[in-house]
Design brief:
355 residues, alpha+beta, Endonuclease I-creI, 4-stranded antiparallel beta sheet
Length: 355
């Protein structure tokens, strides 16, 4: 199957000029995310349903040593601390043999604050120091450690846009599913798959079914990051997007277009459109494009036997050229169609105007 995909991709590449996929997306600017570790957990998370951190033993050792130094005369800390954390002993966590749950790590810091006479500011500073350090996330029986971004970057902005347009995130209480479907297997294999893997340090499987291709993974840390930290919902613009700088906003909108957009590359019917069932969502997307000087018309309403849906569009040819130059696409098929349309418009005397 992979040989067929690779062969088809090589044939497709011959028709693509300057398509570099996600490698064309710059690493900057970066917008730091506030410490979100506690946003990844809920009160109902138990031992087997918690998210764990691996690589924070330095902080556990330091905290433990200070508690012992300050309390050994008055407290049986070797027994008391594990009891308060609900674990059999502290040593496997100090030497890194066991990962520690986010809740227990924070509880340990609260005990450190109490027994070592620390302030709330001391606690906050130590918690942020842990957040800024290098670690991986896992679950109780997880086989694949995961990293989560600590900054909004253009690549993450693109993924947010894609998932808002055509993502699927499901929580059954025991299983956590993150996936996206696409007609173009090339887009999943050579754009979205490496994007997920770069952002989250995971291997994500690709499934092919008749008429449908699915990129899918069951990762609780990634699910919680997307839904609780970034607050992504399909068909909604997350609050975090509204304060993005122009570059990150551009790549968010590119992700929306690549997931829900279409291109008519014929000269007479030249059109760029974005489709969605949510009227308000398209209105917000249109306004975000306006912030970047790109103007869509609509939303226009459609009603079929499958239901009601809407679209926004660009038909004016100089505006199409502006979209191609200033927004563009990281979608293999749409990139090709935009290039074809661009060549036709230039051939008919139209020019790109940056104003």
């Amino acid at each position: 199957m992979r040989t067929k995909i690779a062969s088809a991709f090589l044939n497709l590449q011959r028709n693509l000029i300057n398509f570099t996929g996600i490698e064309s997306i710059p690493p900057e600017p970066r917008i730091p995310l506030k410490n979100y570790l506690l946003d990844l957990v809920t009160e109902s998370d138990g031992k087997e349903s918690s998210i764990y951190l691996k690589g924070v033993e330095k902080f556990i050792q330091e905290t433990w040593t200070e508690i012992v130094k300050n309390s050994w005369r008055t407290l049986h800390v070797e027994k008391l601390i594990p009891e308060k954390l609900g674990v059999s002993g502290i040593y496997p966590y100090k030497n890194g043999k066991k990962a520690i749950s986010i809740q227990n790590l924070y509880k340990l810091l609260i005990l450190w604050k109490e027994y070592c006479k620390k302030t709330e500011e001391d606690l906050k500073e130590k918690w942020n120091e842990i957040y800024a350090s290098d670690y991986v996330f896992s679950v109780h029986k997880g086989l694949q450690p995961t990293k989560l971004p600590k900054d909004i970057t253009p690549k993450l902005s693109y993924l947010i846009g894609w998932m808002c347009g055509d993502g699927h995130m499901f929580d059954s209480g025991r299983h956590y599913l993150v996936n996206t479907t696409e007609k173009s297997i090339h887009q999943l294999e050579f754009v979205l798959k490496p994007l997920f893997e770069q952002l989250f340090n995971v291997k994500i499987p690709l499934f092919t079914y008749p008429g449908k291709n699915v990129l899918q993974m069951g990762s609780k840390p990634i699910f919680r990051f997307l839904t609780r930290v970034l607050k992504i919902k399909v068909g909604e613009v997350p609050q975090i997007v509204k304060s993005l700088d122009p570059v990150n906003k551009k790549y968010f909108l590119m992700g929306i277009f690549d997931s829900e957009g279409s291109v008519d590359s014929s000269y007479l019917n030249a059109r760029i459109a974005i489709h969605q069932a949510n009227y308000k969502f398209l209105e917000e997307i249109s306004n975000l494009f306006k912030d970047l000087g790109i103007y869509f018309t609509g939303p226009y309403r459609h009603e079929t036997e499958k239901g009601i849906w809407y679209h926004i569009q660009i038909r004016r040819k100089t505006d199409i050229l502006k979209f191609i130059k200033e927004i563009g696409s990281c979608h293999i098929d749409k990139f090709r169609k935009l290039k074809i349309l661009e060549e036709k418009l230039y051939a008919h005397g139209y020019c790109y105007n940056s104003t």
